[in-house]
Specification:
- The structure is a single chain.
- By secondary structure, the chain is mostly beta strands.
- It is 0% helix and 46% strand.
- The protein is built from no helices and eleven strands.
- It is globular.
- The termini are far apart.
């Protein structure tokens, strides 16, 4: 069973930074599409950033230039560096992994494994 564990959430003021980490208990981690999702109260879960096994990265428009997704395959860890944060970034953030061989699309339905989430609050 693949397990994911996020850390690094917290509270910051507008313009501040946070770095989220996601540890994955999977020796085949490097072969998976990985993503960071977020879900704000009353809103649908959205894929903030995705990174494919070949390193191809995608971001939603609202975080481009502010967030950076990266992966350390040697440490089985996924990261999300969040800079210039805004109140609208407030949400529960989740890391997610796909089954090996699946394309790195953004639909949350296609992600088989999820962490428990870490809360992020940005105050104005």
């Amino acid at each position: 069973q693949v397990q994911l564990a996020e850390s690094g959430g917290g509270s910051v003021q507008t313009g501040g930074s946070l770095r989220l980490s996601c540890a994955i208990s999977d020796s085949t981690y490097s072969r998976r599409c990985m993503a960071w999702f977020r879900q704000a109260p009353g809103k649908e879960r959205e894929a903030v950033a995705r990174i494919a096994s070949d390193g191809v990265i995608s971001y939603i428009e609202s975080v481009k230039g502010r967030f950076t997704i990266s992966r350390d395959n040697a440490k089985n860890t996924l990261y999300l560096q969040m800079d210039s944060m805004k109140p609208e970034d407030t949400a529960m953030y989740y890391c997610a992994a796909k089954r090996i061989g699946y394309s790195c699309s953004s639909s949350p339905v296609a992600f088989a494994y999820w962490g428990q989430g870490t809360p992020v609050t940005v105050s104005s």
